[in-house]
Amino acid sequence: MTLYLDHAATSPLRPEAREAFLRACGIGANASSVHGPGRKAKVMVEDARATILEALGATGAAGLVFTSGGTEANALALRQAQDHGNKGFDSIIVSEGEHDSIYVGAEAVGVPVVRLPLTLDGQADLDTLETLLAGPGRAFVALMLVNNETGVINDIAKAAGIVHARGGWLHVDAVQALGKIAIDFRALGADSLSLSAHKVGGGQGTGALVYDRNRTIKAAVTGGGQELGLRAGTENVPGIAAFAAAVDTCHIGMTALHAAQADVESAVKAQGVEIVGEGAPRVPGLLCLAQAHWTSPLQLIHMDMNGIAVSSGSACSSGKVKASRVVAAMGRPDLADKVLRVSAGWTTTPEDWQSFLATWSKGYEAFMKRHTKEVA
Q1: How do strand 91-95 and strand 139-142 relate by DSSP bridges?
Q2: pLDDT digits (tens, 9 = 90+) for 223-247
Q3: Total Cβ atoms within 10 A of residue 323
Q4: Cβ density class 144-176: b for 16+ within 10 Å, e for less
Q5: How many helices (H) and strands (E) does the chain have?
Q6: Looking at the predicted structure, is the pLDDT value of residue 170 above 90?
Q7: Which of 106, 205, 358, 376 has the lowest CB atom count within 10 Å?
C-alpha cells in the first residue's frame, strides 16, 4: 500500500466532501432551472458560497465566483489587469515564486510583466516591490500567500499597503494556504484571492476567485450569465458542494502533525540536509528539503519503489521532473535539481512522517556511500 505524502499536489477526497458530492448528484438538476429541483441545486450553490466566504472572514466584504480550479481563478484575476475600468494597468508585477498559472499566464495578458525577486529565505522582496511601484503608472501585483514548493508565507498585509498606496491591485494565490493556516480576507487586504478545492480534499475540478466587493470584476468567460455574470457555464453543483464541505472541515487534525514534522526536520538537518526556506515563516505540513548530491529524479525513484508518494515541486508541469525555478530564485541554483517536497494532509499520521524519514534516510545513506566511492 502506498504511503501518500503529496497532498500539496492533490489531497484525497474527504469523506465529508464525498457525502456532499453524492447528495448534490441526487438532486440531478441544473442550478439555473426555475423548477423545484433546479431551485434546490441553486440553494446548494449559494449555501456553499456562503460557507466558504464565512471561513475566510469575508462575509459581506467579498464576492465569490466558482471556477474549474485555482488555475482558472488565477486566469480570471489576471483578466482584471487587461482592461479594468477602461483604464487598465501599465504593468503586471509577478513574484519569482508564483505558480505557473500566474508566472506563465501573466505573459498572455498583453501587459508588460515585471518579475519581483525573492529573498534568500524565499519570501517576495517587498523592498524591491516598493521601488518598482515608485515609478509611473499603475500596477497589478500577483503575490502568493504560501509558496507551493517551500511552504514559505509572504507578508500579504504589508504588501497590500504598499500596492494600494500606489493605486494598484493585489491578487493573492491562496491555494496552498487554505487548510494550513487561517485566512482572513479583510486582514490580508487583497483585492482578489484564488482557491482550489482539491488541495483540501474537496475534489478536483472546482475552485474559486474571491474578490473585494468594492472592485468591479470583468468576466473572462461570457455567455449564459451564471455566477453573477462573471463565469458563464453550467455550475458544477456536486463539485461546489464537495468544496464547501471540505473547507468546513479542513482545519481539523493538522496540529498533531506539527511535532512529528519538526522531528523529521531535525533528523535530516543532522544528516547535512537543508530545509528550504527555514529562515522564513512556513506553513505546517509542507517540507522542502535539499542536499548537494542526490538529484530529485533519483530521490523520487527511490521513494516510489519503496511505496512512498512524494514530489520534487509543483505538480502542474505535465509530469516532468524539472529543476526548481523557485529554489534557483532563492539564490540556490546549485540545489534546484536536488530538492524533495513532502506534504502532509488529512490522511497523514505522525507515524507516516517517521516512515518517510526512515525510507529517505536509508536511500540517502546508500547513495552517499556510492557517491563517496565514485569521487574517491
Answers
A1: parallel
A2: 888 998 899 899 999 999 999 999 9
A3: 17
A4: bbbbbbbbbbbbbeebbebbeebebbbbbbbbb
A5: 12, 12
A6: yes
A7: 376
| Cβ–Cβ < 8 Å for 178, 218 | no
**Count of C-beta atoms within a 10 Å radius of residue 351:** 10
Residues with Cβ within 8 Å of residue 334, at least 6 apart in sequence: 292
C-alpha cell at 147: 509558496
Q: Which of 244, 199, 280, 236 is nearest to 56 (CA)?
A: 244
Of 282, 274, 278, 281, which is closest to residue 335 (Cα–Cα)? Answer: 274
Whole-number Å distance between alpha carbons of 189 and 66: 21
CATH architecture of the domain covering 3-10+252-375: Alpha-Beta Complex (3.90)
CA pair distance 177, 195, nearest whole angstrom: 9
> What is the 3-class SS of 123-168, one letter each residue?
CECHHHHHHHHCCCCCEEEECCCECCCCCEECCHHHHHHHHHHCCC
pLDDT digits (tens, 9 = 90+) for 4-49: 999 999 999 999 999 999 999 999 999 999 999 999 999 999 999 9
- 251: which residues sit within 8 A by CB, 6+ positions away? 179, 182
Q: Which of 287, 256, 284 is nearest to 274 (CA)?
A: 287
Map residue 53 onto helix, strand or coil: helix
Q: List the beta bridge partners of residue 64.
A: 210
Task: Name the CATH architecture for the domain at 15-249.
Answer: 3-Layer(aba) Sandwich (3.40)
Residues in the chain: 376
- The alpha carbon dihedral of 76, 251, 15, 36 has a sign of negative
**Model's pTM, two decimal places?**
0.95
| Domain locations along the chain | 3-10+252-375, 15-249
Residues marked as catalytic: 316
